[in-house]
Amino acid sequence: MTETNPDDPTNGATTAGATLAERIMAQFDAGGAGLMREMGLRIVAAEPGRVRFVLPVAERLTHSGGVLCGQAIMACMDTGMVFAMMSLTDGDMQPFTTVELKTTFERGVPADVGEVEFEAYVAKPGKTLVFGHIDLLLPDGRRAATATTTYMWL
């Protein structure tokens, strides 16, 4: 997977030699949902059909139980598949929509964990439907949640 440079505030997207991860991040920064951009998602690696990204776990994303809320996790899962879909089109935004997102929560994500990593990948690409999978990983590598998805090209 290509890596991004976290010290580059532009993610290198303005350079002719931008990586796939940088091209996807630039498209997301330019046109992604404001709510998701405000969450601070950052793509760390990408290859066609597979994207890894991180989420800083902020207090505003946690609830009184001291864990990351499920709504934030599911929103990241959905956005992760958006990134994976974009990786199939070399970082370009082609029209598609979510058909189904099924999430299983396996363990809580502690509010003080710092950041967590998501890995989204395309399990079966098709001309009309695309099936995918997203995992949420704690810093110690344990999976906290997993999702299966179906997307449709429009």
In a nutshell, what does this entry contain?
This protein has 154 residues and is α+β, with helices and mostly antiparallel strands.
CATH class: Alpha Beta
Instruction: Report the order of strands and helices.
Output: EHHEEHEEEE
Number of helical stretches of at least 4 residues: 3
Mean pLDDT: 91
- What is CATH's topology name? Thiol Ester Dehydrase, Chain A
Shape: globular
CATH superfamily: Hotdog Thioesterase
How far do the termini sit from each other?
27 Å
What does the model show?
This protein has 154 residues and is an alpha+beta fold. The protein has a single domain, classed as Thiol Ester Dehydrase, Chain A. Helix content is 23%, strand content 36%. It is built from 3 helices and 7 strands; from the N terminus they run E-H-H-E-E-H-E-E-E-E. It has a 7-stranded antiparallel β-sheet, covered by helices on one side. Strand 2 and strand 3 form a beta hairpin. The protein is globular and about 40 Å long. The relative contact order is 0.18.
Write the layout of secondary structure elements.
Elements: E1 2-3, H1 20-31, H2 34-38, E2 42-47, E3 50-56, H3 70-88, E4 96-105, E5 115-124, E6 129-137, E7 143-153
Antiparallel strand pairs: 1-2, 2-3, 3-5, 4-7, 5-6, 6-7
